[in-house]
Design brief:
This protein has about 190 residues and is mainly alpha-helical. The protein has helices at about 5-20, 30-60, 85-115, 120-125, 125-135, 135-140, 175-180, and strands at about 65-70, 80-85, 185-190. About 15% of the residues are buried.
């Protein structure tokens, strides 16, 4: 039985917080080493994402993918029918990964350069790298896992704390037919 990624992240964070208390960040060489670790970690993630994008574009899987995207929590909107291709869906997912990574680097830059926090550099050298290798796109395109079971598209969004992330997209026939009858969406995303 594999451990929940959120639990392992929590264990890593708590462990790295203890380790970072012992690291002498006052020493400029140690600080430069931790900065280098953070930069190398992000360069590895960039390399993985570029490779994924290349593999997705090379495969160019034009299999039609239909799913019902749930309405945002708390809104009165109807669930929306999405018709796309596996290729477009994967590109949309990789764009989301890029955006998330850039936001993390931006926030870390502000925390480190403006507020002079150094401890998060150590934690942020490990957690995003671990997260990148646990992603569904990496499992399918890098590790060659078949897109069945939990890896079947569309993927559920990662749940928040304690798994309270709400419903993910629904790809079952009943939900799709219900959305088609309601006339919500159905426009092919390109």
């Amino acid at each position: 039985m594999a451990l929940n990624p959120q639990i392992t992240n929590l264990v890593i964070i708590l462990g790295m917080m203890q380790v970072s208390k012992k690291v002498p960040f006052d020493d400029p060489q140690v600080l430069m080493g931790v900065r280098a670790l953070y930069i190398v970690s992000n360069l590895i993630i960039v390399g993985v994402y570029l490779y994924l994008q290349m593999k997705i574009n090379a495969k160019k899987d034009m299999t039609t993918l239909k799913y019902v995207e749930p309405a945002p929590m708390g809104s009165a909107e109807e669930p929306k029918l999405i018709t796309t291709t596996v290729h477009s869906y994967d590109l949309q997912q990789i764009r989301g990964l890029w955006k998330s990574q850039l936001m993390g680097v931006g926030m870390m830059g502000v925390m480190h350069l403006y507020f002079k926090y150094t401890n998060p550099l150590l934690i942020q050298s490990i957690i995003p790298l671990k997260g990148a290798f646990e992603g569904n796109l990496v499992k399918i395109h890098l590790f060659g896992s078949p897109a069945i079971g939990d890896l079947k598209r569309p993927w559920k969004a990662a749940g928040g704390m304690m798994g309270m992330g709400g419903d993910g997209p629904k790809a079952d026939k009943k939900s799709i037919e219900q959305a088609e009858r309601a006339g919500s969406g159905g426009v092919k995303d390109e």
